[in-house]
Design a protein that fits this description.
This protein is α/β, with parallel strands linked by helices and about 375 residues long. The protein has helices at about 15-20, 50-60, 85-95, 120-150, 155-175, 185-190, 220-230, 240-250, 255-265, 270-280, 305-310, 315-320, 330-335, 335-340; strands at about 5, 40-45, 65, 65-70, 100-105, 200-205, 235-240, 285-290, 295-300, 320-325, 345-350, 360-365. A 6-stranded mixed beta sheet has the order 2-4-1-5-6-7, sandwiched between helices. A 3-stranded mixed beta sheet has the order 3-9-8, sandwiched between helices. α1 (about 15-20) packs parallel to α8.
């Protein structure tokens, strides 16, 4: 299972958000820096409005959504790359995740300590980015020296990596994250063994106060973060309220809906954040639907039908014959497999078929 790491400065709402997302109390949430030291790990189900109508057509009450793993990583501070605030340890935790969710404080509250004493979301973002870039400069510089020694013996692969490392080091030295360096697909594949922190896919979670969720689009801090994310990081910014999420975690579904309605919003923001993380990780969903259950299966964008079948069981991939496929909306509209077949809407796809997000699939295989 792929993992997304929740990062940010101390006291921006990371642990409160983690607790709400995972419906746990694993992460201590307190009003002082470094209340999280060891990373907390939790499994989060991915909200998917497609599953309920598909399950209804399949006549099953059992719905199994997709899931991802979240890691709550302790707050970073300026100087983390040089070990400040247990920085080296925290940076190593970031190295172990597949994507980064940077929580950015976009609310004023004098009762909650800000590590820099003044609220400035863009400066907060740049602090985190700078520490990741500095850590990458140090790590990649040492890797380049080792590769240069190997390249002298005539190793062509090492020579190509040395050239790529030099290109990335120049980009990092300008203060920009590796993710924004213009690279070909081949260069990106070649850069993978460098394990650069600033190369990880990133999105920003703008944490607003309870009373500002409905009007977040006009929040000047949110607007600034969205502009920065788009122009400097080619990334998405999602609005959430960690405090609201913490309160919703204590309520029944009906009470939660009433509470959100009173705030003037339909969704708390957490559903959109989880879906954004899921796509940030390069993940997509296909659905199987029968009388026993309706289940969302996680695949990577671009996976073929045999690879998707292998997610269920390796025998399905090994003995793959074909995939009977229909989009979920058509599946619901016509009322299931029998009608889909009668109307010629159920497609027979072979080994080269690239599974689409939201496909409903039946696999035929023989082992």
């Amino acid at each position: 299972m792929l993992r997304a790491g929740i990062v940010g400065l101390p006291n921006v709402g990371k642990s409160t958000l983690f607790n709400a997302l995972t419906r746990t109390r694993k992460a201590e949430a307190a009003n002082y820096p470094f209340c999280t030291i060891e990373p907390n790990v939790g499994i989060v189900t991915v909200p998917d409005a497609r599953l309920e109508p598909v399950a209804r057509v399949a006549k099953t009450a059992t719905i199994v959504p997709a899931a991802i793993e979240l890691v709550d990583i302790a707050g970073l501070v300026k100087g983390a790359a040089q070990g400040e605030g247990l920085g080296n340890k925290f940076l190593s935790h970031i190295r172990e995740v597949d994507a980064i969710v940077q929580v950015v404080r976009c609310f004023e509250d004098r009762d909650i300590v800000h590590v820099e004493e003044e609220l400035h979301p863009l400066a907060d973002i740049e602090t985190i980015v700078t520490e990741l870039v500095l850590a990458d400069l140090d790590s990649l510089g040492r890797q380049k020296e080792r590769l240069e020694r190997t390249a002298k013996s005539g190793d062509k692969a090492a020579k190509a990596q040395v050239e790529l490392a030099a290109k990335l080091l120049a980009h990092l030295d300008s203060g920009k994250p590796a993710l924004t360096c213009e690279l070909s697909d081949d260069e990106r594949a070649l850069a993978r063994p460098f394990f650069l922190l600033s190369m990880k896919p990133t999105l920003f979670a703008c944490n607003v106060a309870e009373g500002e969720l409905a009007t977040a689009a006009s929040n000047r801090h949110v607007q600034a973060v969205r502009r920065w994310a788009e122009t400097h990081h080619d990334a998405e910014a999602v609005v959430i309220s960690a405090r609201i999420e913490a309160e919703l975690a204590e309520l029944s579904d009906d009470d939660a809906r009433d509470y959100l309605a009173a705030l003037g919003v339909e969704e708390s923001g957490v559903g959109g954040l989880i879906r954004a993380i899921y796509h940030l990780l390069g993940l997509r969903t296909y659905i199987t639907a029968g009388e026993k259950e309706c289940r969302a299966w996680t695949i990577h964008a671009g996976d073929t039908a045999p690879q998707a079948a292998g997610v269920i069981h390796s025998d399905f991939e090994r003995g793959f014959i074909r995939a009977e496929t229909i989009g979920w909306q058509e599946f619901v509209r016509v009322g299931g497999w029998p009608a889909a077949r009668e109307q010629g809407l159920a497609r027979q796809e072979g080994k080269e078929y690239v599974v689409q997000d939201g496909d409903v699939i039946l696999f035929k295989f023989n082992v």
